[in-house]
Design goal:
The chain has 161 residues and is α+β, with helices and mostly antiparallel strands. Helix content is 19%, strand content 26%. Bound molecules: zinc ion.
Length: 161
């Protein structure tokens, strides 16, 4: 699977959903629409999987409003060129070609492999046996709900822990 590395605080923005676009220079991976990508952080640790929804090659000077959608902003053009020059270790300017890659996260991978939010059994579960889980650690603080699960250990009122 093709991998893309993201600097500093960008993985956070991607996981929050505020970043859905990445700009790449000298794309030697030939990233194309429908590609499945593995996203890694500065330490090369995977944090998400994503699917490419659109690709466009342009120059920095020709960036359109559409290209900025889902992309982090810069305080100035200078800051933007400085940032990319730092990423790529050469002088990036308005004439540099840039590949605009828009993507959608694969949420299944995100929830299971990346955050380890799996469900683990403390004992063997028989085929067909019903399993229940405690919602209290998933609730919004200050809220509560009545439980009707029927378990003899039921707390009846579920509150945020
Ligand atoms: Zn219950």
């Amino acid at each position: 699977m093709k991998q893309l590395k993201f600097a500093e605080d960008l993985p956070q923005k991607i996981l929050e959903g505020s970043k859905t676009c990445t700009w790449r220079i000298n794309d030697n991976k030939n990233i194309s629409v429908d590609d499945e990508l593995l996203f890694t952080n500065n330490n090369k640790e995977p944090f998400a999987k994503a699917k490419v929804t659109s690709v466009l090659v342009t120059k920095f000077k020709n960036l359109s409003d559409k290209d900025w959608v889902g992309h982090e902003k810069f305080n100035s053009k200078d800051e933007m060129y400085k940032t990319y020059s730092g990423y790529y270790k050469f002088k990036v300017n308005e004439e540099t070609e840039v590949k605009i890659i828009k993507f959608e996260l694969d949420l299944l991978i995100q929830n299971s492999k990346i955050h380890n939010n799996g469900v683990f059994a403390a004992r063997d579960i028989k085929k067909g046996e019903e399993i229940t889980s405690d919602y209290s650690d998933e609730m919004v603080p200050g809220t509560e709900m009545f439980c009707n699960c029927g378990s003899k250990n039921c707390k009846k009122i579920i509150r945020f822990k």
